[in-house]
Amino acid sequence: MSRRRGWLLCAVGLLASSLTWAGPAAGQAGPRTLRVAIKGNENNITPFTVGFGANPATNDIQHLVYDSLFWSQVKAEPEPWLAEKAVPSEGGKVWTVTLRQGVTWQDGKPFTPEDVAFSYEFYKKQEGASGRYAHHVSDVPAYDRAEVVDSKTIRLFFSQPAPQFKIMPGADLPIIAKHIFEAIPDPAKATTNLPVGTGPFKLVEIVPDQRYKLEANQSYFKGKPRIDRLELVIIKDPGGAFTALRTGDVDMVERNIPGELVDQLKGTSGIGVAEGTRFESTQLYFNARKKPLNDPKLRKAMSMGINIDDIVKTVLLGRARPGRDTYLHPDSPWAVKDAGHQLDPQAAAKMLDDAGYSAKDPDGVRKAPDGTRLEFSVLVNSFEPLELRATQLIATQMQPLGIKYKVESLDPATLRSRRSPAPGQTIPPYDAYVSNIESHAHVDPDALYYFFHSPGKGPDGKQKGFGGTITGYTNPEFDKLVEQATVAEAPDRRRLLADAQAMIARDTPMQVLWYPDGIWAYRQQPYDGWVNDRGQGIFTKRSFLPGYEEIAVSKVSSSTGSGGEGGGGSSATPFIIGGVLVAAVLAGFAVSRRRGATENE
Hints:
Blueprint: H1 3-18, E1 33-38, H2 58-65, E2 70-71, E3 79-80, E4 83-89, E5 94-99, H3 113-125, H4 131-138, E6 143-150, E7 153-158, H5 178-181, E8 201-207, E9 211-216, E10 229-234, H6 238-247, E11 252-253, H7 259-266, E12 271-276, E13 281-286, H8 296-304, H9 308-314, E14 320-322, H10 345-354, E15 375-381, H11 385-398, E16 404-410, H12 412-418, E17 432-437, H13 440-443, H14 447-452, H15 476-485, H16 490-507, E18 510-516, E19 518-523, H17 553-556, H18 573-595
Parallel strand pairs: 1-10, 1-11, 15-16, 15-17
Antiparallel strand pairs: 2-3, 4-5, 5-7, 6-7, 8-9, 9-10, 12-19, 13-17, 13-18, 14-18
Helix pairs in contact: 1-18, 3-4, 6-18, 8-10, 15-16
């Protein structure tokens, strides 16, 4: 046996043996436990400490513990949740919210309008500690103050019209307990406290970088959850996660099934496959503040050289929608409906020539007018093999244009560090990076404002959006459009955002590579009540609550029918488990060789 083969077999054994967790077997007495594989750590799951390691499920995990006034942000008319209704006045600058009665916090204390008022004030005060959530009260919509009217009513005042309040922040912002957070001066540092929310599950145990244990909130106002205990098991490697599913060590994997496994899992006895819609995307971001990438003509030329259809076909095996130059998910209510991707390598080459990038070194790599080689490093998450393969393919596609991409595979912590400016600097040193984002970035009516507004502060001294931490794209004309859109009613907002999307397509601060199909695998016997929450997938709180059984994916989708009794899947099981696991180990071995000196795990 060769040393390499011996290493592989040893690694397979170690990985398989490590994926074991305690819990009652199916049919045995005891709490009903569901184990879900997530792909990363989220600290102690508060709005101020989430680490985005499990993204795009970060917000879904957050809302297992906490609740918002409405649910969900994807809906044009979100479902009342902690609120029964919200009525605007004074042109949308005042919203009167009627709260649900009989709600309690997980420690037994009553939920009150004072908690809502405190939440909005606290997020505004702590904007630096919760960028994911606080920007909807510290930036736009421009929250001003709260007024408690009576025991079930509160008024929220905004300094400008907030026409989309019920969507953002109403259906997104986790409401926090006044009696908990008023004693916490710096919530970003409170990473060890077990959180207290009003949500359907209470976090009772954390094993860092291994798992979370949550127990059902027996007095939840929408009814006792249908699961007694929920264990979120952290498995960063996708191959390991799906192997754990096949061996029964987890009951569901909260990540899209890789294309090469879909048909195999559909043909496996006991495995259900749910197909739904999730407004998720993967994109290539350029550092638009760093020369020569601050030239929109260079960025557009590179975009025109990317064959996105080929990426979707070869890397995703066709199980995704091709990326569009206008950024927003094609199903977002704010998206331009007839957009696409401009592929034209010949025109791209001419654009580069005309823009002054005609000189080449002997190896064929073009040079900028100042002599800088068009050679760029692209940072990729080492735990996302599809993103890695796609970036390698893009590097090949750039070669005929005379542009060289160096692909760097990094663990998530190192990648985040490389995206940040060095001490004493304002512009981060990276060239480009690949990342995925969740539905919030596509359905938020102000997403374009937040992601791509020029870095800098407005007349009020406050930072406008957080585009400086995304790409650093700068365009005053774009800024004007998205600022106007933040206070516009829906028809005018769509028109303004359509013009803004046209500018994004022209200036290319990033390039969406694909919008993945929502497709998830789960073991049917432990739990078959998953609900497809349109735009957010099946791993949301509604999947665990009574009252939604009739819209469970097992009842409305024929895609799960291949996983029942019979199915012809059992004979293939040993091959699939071994194939997935060995493929994962081989991929990890290849990544580790490429990672070299950049590895910092």
